[in-house]
Design goal:
heterodimer, A: 422 residues, mainly alpha, three-stranded antiparallel beta sheet, B: alpha/beta, six-stranded mixed beta sheet, 11 helices, globular
């Protein structure tokens, strides 16, 4: 006791008002402020990047949703030799239309109006729009009609202000005849060689089917694995090994999963190449570890007292898991699942390995049909030489981002819906 | 009575300078649970050695002792909650109404319905008050219709002294109640499955004095309807609510007897030291 009091007496009283102390305090506050501003700066920087990306994408992509059109006068009664509207109604409409020879009618009309080389002003598949217009409204074959048809890609790009000198000249010649309209084709069509004819629907549908397969495979397996590992499995060397393996799987580069899919699903099981089924299975392999890890964390976060409470009144292990643990862990599991799914949705590399980079001109109608997905479509279009594809690529990116945004919104909704307030 | 005492056993626990206390059956009412020579091991470490205690229907039995003395561990043997800890191993005989609860044919799920438990920290399910109570009867199929279930919920809440406070808000979340109310809700939840024994593991340690008084009052009222075993740190509480007290120290049962005797006239020096506050 004596020695400690002696030490206490030796110590000078702290001078809180002294210069040294005041300087120290000032420095401390300054570093606090510095840290705050650094954080703020980081946020502003990342928000800036995001805003820049969005503005560029939306600016470019918006044009992808529009097309440049030229009017064509078509004298249907003269060209068709007096076809009646009723021919193109009902089930026989398609067949009758084929015999009518719309392509020739359109070509002749174009030549009359725009001269010998007039056809070159238009997109190669433009006549298909006329067929669709007849099917939609057969009455037009009984009259002289003005139909707006998409101009060719060079004129389209030039009219939007980014074309070659040659195309610019043509645009100047055509002058007021050119107009801009919403490109419905882009929403309904699939891939094509002519950028005026491409559409996103094939890739979007492929993505939807692939995501569906990924979800129904990866979610149940991932959640069951997480529950088993957390609630049932004993802690031993084997489960440690499994845990390490799963953590490693989540970090494996995605192209490796593509190779695995190629070796196992295509070569070993002989599944169809380029199909959404194989794509979905491959992405499920990739997504599963993410779901298992997030699922385990969510299950771990359920307080043990809840398990004890349920066990204490005689609930079986399964009742504890399904009545208490799973409902409480579900928001966390869903968040992890959506993160995994979002990653899978944006994945290109593994799908290239299993042949989903093929040119697919029709939307897939089943899981075994050749299909492509949005990111692969973006990748393919970005590789095209034709300048018309630039804005289509941006437009496809917008569609992909909207898809992602919808998924995340759904995740937030589900999380809030199931979240338990304590 | 004295079959447990054995010099070789006391030499196994070098910390003990006195011999292991004898198991006693302090009479008063039918025997409900009985334990003989119970040992609990966590891996290599022995947490409980040779505990023999009888629990009767009409008495509230209190386990007291310093922290880490094994009273909670022992309590959790009585409804096999230790099964959830993979490294825990229990030897010895524990019987409920003469049935060995560690026998292979014993159904643990049913056992835990017969031997209910209330935990240290109130742990209502994050569900409505009604669903908290109705959960047990539902999973055990104790009610055939909604009316019967409503009836069970009401009587359970009444027995737990909570009905008056919550009858207008049965569908509010159980977690929105105050700490004391939550603990009474947990007691009501245990009662709802109509157990024979209720184990309480320091039920008042997270509560304020008023809530504690209410729980103690409740224990008085429940006495006789259920065999009650309560673990407590609070010696005054043991003296107030129990008729039989067991004093644990370092994993052994030092003394077990009528509460008033334990507190006024303990036979063991260790007990006297603990009760008078010399350690613990």
């Amino acid at each position: 006791m004596n020695s400690t009091t002696a030490i206490e007496k030796d110590r000078n009283p702290t001078d809180w008002q002294g210069d040294v102390m005041q300087k120290r305090i000032r420095r401390r506050y300054a570093s606090e402020r510095r840290f705050k501003y650094l954080g703020l700066g980081a946020i502003i920087l990342s928000a800036g990047f995001l805003a820049f990306l969005l503005i560029v994408m939306v600016g470019n992509g918006f044009r992808g949703f529009t097309q440049t059109e030229l009017p064509v006068d078509i004298d249907f009664p003269a060209m068709t030799g007096g076809a009646s509207a009723s021919q193109f109604e009902g089930v026989n409409g398609q067949a009758n239309l084929r015999t009518l020879g719309v392509k020739d009618i359109v070509n002749t009309s174009v030549e009359i109006q725009y001269g010998e080389d007039g056809r070159e002003l238009f997109s190669s598949g433009a006549w298909q729009g006329v067929s669709a217009a007849i099917l939609a409204n057969p009455k037009i074959v009984e009259t002289k009609t003005i139909i707006y048809m998409p101009a060719n890609s060079e004129i389209d790009v030039a009219y939007k202000g980014d074309g070659t000198a040659e195309a610019e000249k043509k645009v100047a010649e055509l002058g007021d005849q050119l107009s801009t309209a919403f490109n419905w084709n882009f929403l309904y069509n699939s891939d094509a060689t002519d950028p005026m004819q491409v559409g996103i629907w094939g890739a979007l549908k492929g993505s939807l089917i692939t995501m569906f397969i990924t979800l129904i495979i990866a979610f149940p397996i991932g959640v069951l694995s997480a529950l088993y590992l957390e609630e049932y499995a004993p802690t031993n060397r084997l489960t440690d090994l499994i845990e390490v393996s799963i953590n490693n799987l989540a970090a494996v580069p995605s192209i490796i999963f593509g190779l695995l899919g190629l070796a196992v699903f295509l070569n070993l099981f002989g599944m169809p190449r380029s199909a959404a089924l194989v794509g979905g299975l491959t992405l499920a392999l990739m997504t599963m570890p993410v779901i298992v890890i997030s699922g385990r964390n969510a299950v771990k976060a359920v307080p043990p007292s809840i398990r004890e409470a349920a066990l204490g009144i005689g609930a079986s292990q399964m009742q504890v898991v399904f009545h208490h643990v799973l409902p409480l862990a579900l928001p966390g599991i869903l968040t992890g699942t959506i993160i995994g799914m979002a990653r899978a949705l944006g994945e290109t590399a593994p799908l290239l390995m299993i042949g989903m980079r093929a040119f697919i001109a029709t939307p897939p109608s089943g899981i075994a049909e050749p299909a492509t997905v949005l990111p692969v479509q973006i990748f393919l279009w970005s590789d095209e030489v034709n300048r018309g594809f630039v804005e289509k690529t941006s437009a496809a990116i917008i569609v992909l981002l909207l898809f992602l945004l919808t998924m995340n919104a759904l995740a937030i909704y589900l999380r809030n819906r199931f979240e338990t307030r304590w | 009575m004295t079959e447990v005492i054995d010099s070789t056993r006391s030499s196994e626990s070098p910390n003990m300078t006195i011999s292991t206390a004898p198991a006693i059956s302090p009479g008063d009412g039918p025997l409900k649970m009985s334990t003989r020579n119970v040992n609990v091991f966590y891996g290599e470490k022995q947490a409980i050695s040779d505990v023999s205690i009888d629990v009767t229907m009409d008495n509230v039995t209190a386990f007291i002792g310093p922290s880490g003395c094994g009273k909670s561990t022992f309590l959790r043997c009585l409804n096999r909650m230790n099964d959830t800890i993979p490294i825990a191993r229990v030897t010895g005989d524990i019987t409920l109404e003469g049935e060995d609860i560690y026998a292979p044919q014993m159904d643990v799920v049913q056992l835990r319905a017969r031997v209910g438990m209330v935990f240290q920290k109130p742990n209502p399910f994050p569900k409505s008050i009604y669903d908290n109570i109705a959960y047990g009867p539902r999973i055990h199929g104790l009610a055939t219709g909604k009316d019967e279930l409503d009836n069970i919920v009401e009587t359970s809440l009444q027995r737990a002294g909570l009905w008056g406070e919550v009858q207008d808000r049965l569908h509010d979340s159980g977690t929105a109640l105050s700490g004391g109310q939550q603990q009474r809700l947990c007691i009501a939840r245990a009662i709802a499955v109509d157990p024979e024994v209720i184990l309480m593991d320091e039920p008042c340690s997270a509560l304020d004095p008023i809530a504690t008084a209410k729980i103690e009052e409740l224990i008085h009222e429940l006495r006789g309807k259920y065999a009650i075993v309560i673990v407590t740190h609070n010696m005054q509480q043991a003296a107030r609510v129990s008729q039989r007290t067991a004093f644990f120290h370092l994993g052994t049962l030092v003394e077990y007897g009528v509460t008033s005797d334990i507190f006024t006239n303990p036979t063991q020096e260790k007990t006297r030291d603990y009760i008078t506050g010399r350690y613990g």
